[in-house]
From TrEMBL, chains A, B:
It comes from the Bacteria. The keyword Ubl conjugation does not apply. This is FMN-dependent oxidoreductase, nitrilotriacetate monooxygenase family. Keywords: Flavoprotein, FMN, Monooxygenase, Oxidoreductase. It comes from Paraburkholderia phenazinium. InterPro entries: Diverse_substr_monoxygenases, Luciferase-like_dom, Luciferase-like_sf, NTA_MOA. Belongs to the NtaA/SnaA/DszA monooxygenase family. The keyword Ion transport does not apply. CDD domains: Nitrilotriacetate_monoxgenase (cd01095).
Length: 443, 443
C-alpha cells in the first residue's frame, strides 16, 4: 500500500506585479504591467499552466507612506484594484484560485460579502478572501478618520466582521433557487434566512442579495502574525500567508498556529500555512546568484538606506556607501533583523550600498539556486512541518515566473509533491479544504 | 455638403438579466443567467456585435422589499454584483461600454473612485459610473443605519461625493508615470496631487493609488428625475437614464434638463439623455403583439395585483380577476398611471388579471412591432428631441436581444442614424463626449 506524500500548495504573490523594488527595471520586464491587463492575463495563464493554487493580490488603501525620494522610484505606488482585477482574470482562466485582500476596518461587511460571493459565482468557485485589518495609518485619512483604529480593537472588529460576512454567505440554502419554469416559483422562501445581526460593532439585517457562493464560502485567508492575528487565524483561517525567514521560525509558527487550531477542535489540515518565498532560479547556482545580485543593482541607494538603518536600529546614512559595514552597536529594537543584515554583510562581503540595495529590494525568505536546490528547500519545509507550501514571489516578470513554471514545477512534480493536474473544480477542492456547512440550513 | 444626421446612442439595461418579471419563464430563456457567467458573456458579445454603446448594470443593496408571494416568483431577487461582473465582461469584449451603479449613500468615495478607475484601466477606457443616492430604505438596514437618509440630504451628500471622486481621479497628471528604466524614476512627484478634501460630509486626503483613468474620468451617468436629481444631472451627468413613457413627456424632460445645462454654461451635447425602452420585435405587428401578450402570461396574478392597485390608486384585489375593470373613482395619488391603465384596459380589452400581469411584468415605455415600426419610433424621439437614444430593455433573453441586434440595428444603420463601426476606442469617444481636463494639471 502506497500513500501519497504530503502535497505542496503554491500561491503566487502578485501585488503589485512583483514585490522587488528594482523588478520593473530588470531587462525584459514590463514596466507598465500595473495598468496593462494583457500582461496580467499572461501572468495568470502562466500560473495556471504551472498548476498554481492561486493568484494572490495584496492591497493598500493609500499611496504608501514613504519619503518622496524612494516613493518616486517605486512601481508599487499604483496598480489595479484587486476586486476589479480578479474577475477579469477569472474570465481568462479556468482553474486558478483568485484571492484578494479586503479590509475589515475600511469596508462594510455587506459589500465584502457580496463582492466575494459574486467573484465566487463568476469564477465557478475560485475566490478567496484575505481578511486584513489594515495597518497602514494613512488609509484612515482616506476614509474620514483622523486617527487609525487601535490594533486590538481592529481585531475585535475583524472577528465580528467575519461572523457577519459568513452569516450573509449563508443567507440562502444551497438548494434555495428552484427556478421552476412550470410553476413560476423562482426560489423557496423557507430557504432564505434573514441574518438580523446586531452586534457590538455592526448592525446588518440581510439577507445577502447573492445566492450562496459555489464554495459555500470563499476560502478564508489571513496574514496577521501578532498574538491577536494568530488567534483569529486559528479560529477562522483556511490559508495563512506568513513571513517566516528561517525553517526554524517557520516550524515554530506552524506548530503554534496548528496547536491553537487543535485546542479549538479544528483539524490541523483544515488550514494551509504558506510563507512568502522569493525564488530566483538559475541553471547553475552562479547564474541564480548573478541574477539576484543584478536585481539589487536596480534599487536606488535612496530607496534602501532608510530601510537599512531601520533594520540595523542605527542610522548608517553617514557612512561611506562604498565601504564595508562598520561595527554597529546592539539595539533592542530589531535584534533579529540586525543579526541577519550583519550575517549578509560578512557572508557576501557587501558594501553599505549593496546592503541598502538588498534591504530596499526585498528582505524576507529567499531561495536562490538551481531547480533542484529550490525543490530541496521547499521539500525540507514541507517535510519538516515548516509550512504546507509557499506564497511564491517572483524576482521579476515575466522571466522569473516563466523560470519557476518551466523549471521548478516539473522538479516538484517529479518528486510527487506537487500536482500534475488540478484535483478539483474549486480553489477549496484544490487546497483540500472542506466545504463549510450552512449554519442555517443543515443538509 | 452633407451633414450626418444626429446619431442614436444605445445602452442595454441588463439588470438583472432583464427587467420583465416573467422573462425567465419565456421559452428558450436561461432561468439561471443571474449566476451563469457564460450567458452574460454571450449577451455582452451580442451587444458588441450590435454596436451598442454600453452594457448597463443597475444595482440594489438589499433583497427587494416585496411581499413573499411575489418575491418568490422574482428572478430579480439575486444576481451578480456589478463591479465584479463588469471587469469579467471587459476581459471578453473590446468595444462595449461598461456602466455600473454605485451608491453615494452606502459606499466610500475612495473605494468608488478606485474601483471605477481600475475598471477603466482594465477595459481600456470603457467604464461609466451611474451615480445613485439609493432610494431603497431596506439598504440602510444592511449598512448599520436604522433610518434611511432623507431625500434632499442624500443629494447634498451626492454632490460632495462626486467632487471627491472626480478630485481623486485627478490625483495623477496624465503623464505622471514616466517609468524611466534608465534613471529608475517611476513617476514625477510634481505630477501627483494630494487632494486633502475636508467638506461637510467627507474628509478624504488622497491621493488615489490608481493612475488617472484612461478616459480622464469614467463617464458620469445619472438616473434621478426629481428636482434635485435633474439639477445634479445638469451639473455633472454625461448620460442620463430616465423613464419617460410618452414622446411628449420625453420632450419636456429633455428640454428641462438640457435647459438647465445651458444655464450652467455646459454645452447641450455634453450629455446624452437615454429613456428606458422595452422593445419587442416581431416580423409582423401581430407576431410582436403575440410575444408581448405571451410574456405577460408568465407573470403570476399575485405579482401583479398589488402593483395594479397602486397604479390605480384603488384596491382592486376584491374584483373578479377574469372580469373587466369596473369604473374606478379618481384619486390624487397617481393620476397619470391610473389614466394609462384605464386606456390599456379599454384599448386592448384586458381583464383585471391581464392588467395585473401587464403592470406586474413591465409598465414603462414600450415599442412593440416590426423592425421598421420600432426604428420609426426611435427616429421620432431622436428627431423630435425626446431623447438622444435609448436604454434598451429586452423582453427576454437571449431571443429578445438577438432579434434587436439582427433586425432592428440593421434598420437603424440603413437610415444612417446608428453606427456601423465603433467611432473610437473608449466609451467617451463612442458617445461623443469630451475628455475632462485634469483640474490640477492643465495640459
Amino acid at each position: 500500500m502506497s500513500t501519497q506524500p504530503r502535497q505542496l500548495r503554491l500561491g503566487a504573490f502578485m501585488r503589485p506585479v512583483t514585490i522587488h523594488t528594482g523588478a520593473w527595471r530588470y531587462p525584459g520586464a514590463y514596466p507598465d504591467a500595473n495598468f496593462n491587463f494583457a500582461h496580467m492575463k499572461r501572468f495568470a495563464q502562466t500560473l495556471e499552466r504551472g498548476r498554481f493554487d492561486a493568484f494572490f493580490m495584496a492591497d493598500h488603501l493609500a499611496v504608501l507612506n514613504m519619503p518622496v525620494a524612494s516613493l518616486k522610484r517605486s512601481h508599487t505606488v499604483t496598480s489595479f484594484e484587486p476586486m476589479t482585477l480578479l474577475p477579469a482574470l477569472a474570465a481568462v482562466t479556468e482553474h486558478l484560485g483568485l484571492i484578494a485582500t479586503a479590509s475589515t476596518t475600511f469596508d462594510a461587511p455587506y459589500h465584502v460579502a457580496r463582492r466575494f460571493a459574486s467573484l465566487d459565482h463568476i469564477s465557478g468557485g475560485r475566490a478567496g478572501w484575505n481578511l486584513v485589518t489594515t495597518s497602514n495609518p494613512d488609509a484612515a485619512l482616506n476614509f474620514g478618520l483622523e486617527e487609525h483604529v487601535e490594533h486590538d480593537e481592529r481585531y475585535r472588529r475583524a472577528r465580528e466582521f467575519f461572523d457577519v460576512v459568513t452569516g450573509l454567505w449563508d443567507s440562502w440554502a444551497d438548494d434555495a433557487l428552484i427556478r421552476d419554469v412550470e410553476s413560476g416559483i423562482f426560489f423557496d422562501p423557507d430557504k432564505l434566512h434573514v441574518l438580523d445581526h446586531k452586534g457590538k460593532y455592526y448592525s446588518v439585517r440581510g439577507p445577502l442579495n447573492i445566492a450562496r457562493p459555489v464554495q459555500g464560502w470563499p476560502v478564508i485567508v489571513q496574514a496577521g502574525s501578532s498574538e491577536a492575528g494568530r488567534q483569529i487565524a486559528a479560529e477562522t483561517a483556511e490559508a495563512v500567508f506568513t513571513a517566516q525567514t528561517t525553517l526554524e521560525q517557520g516550524q515554530s509558527f506552524y506548530a503554534d498556529v496548528k496547536g491553537r487550531m487543535e485546542k479549538l477542535g479544528r483539524p490541523r489540515d483544515h488550514m494551509k500555512i504558506l510563507p512568502a518565498a522569493f525564488v530566483v532560479v538559475g541553471d547553475t547556482l552562479d547564474e541564480a546568484l548573478e541574477k539576484r545580485a543584478r536585481l539589487d543593482t536596480f534599487v536606488h541607494y535612496d530607496s534602501g538606506i532608510a530601510s537599512l538603518s531601520i533594520a540595523l536600529g542605527h542610522d548608517v546614512s553617514g557612512f561611506d556607501p562604498d565601504g564595508p559595514l562598520p561595527e554597529i552597536p546592539e539595539s533592542n529594537a530589531s535584534r533579529t533583523s540586525r543579526q541577519r543584515v550583519i550575517e549578509w554583510a560578512e557572508r557576501d562581503k557587501l558594501t553599505i550600498r549593496q546592503l541598502a540595495q538588498r534591504i530596499g529590494g526585498y528582505s524576507g525568505l529567499e531561495m536562490v539556486g538551481t531547480p533542484t536546490m529550490i525543490a530541496d528547500q521547499m521539500e525540507a519545509w514541507l517535510v519538516g512541518e515548516g509550512s504546507d507550501g509557499f506564497n511564491v514571489m517572483f524576482p521579476y516578470l515575466p522571466g522569473g515566473l516563466d523560470d519557476f513554471v518551466d523549471k521548478v514545477v516539473p522538479e516538484l512534480q517529479r518528486r510527487g509533491i506537487f500536482r500534475r493536474e488540478y484535483e478539483g473544480a474549486t480553489l477549496r477542492e484544490n487546497l483540500g479544504l472542506p466545504r463549510p456547512e450552512n449554519r442555517f440550513f443543515r443538509a
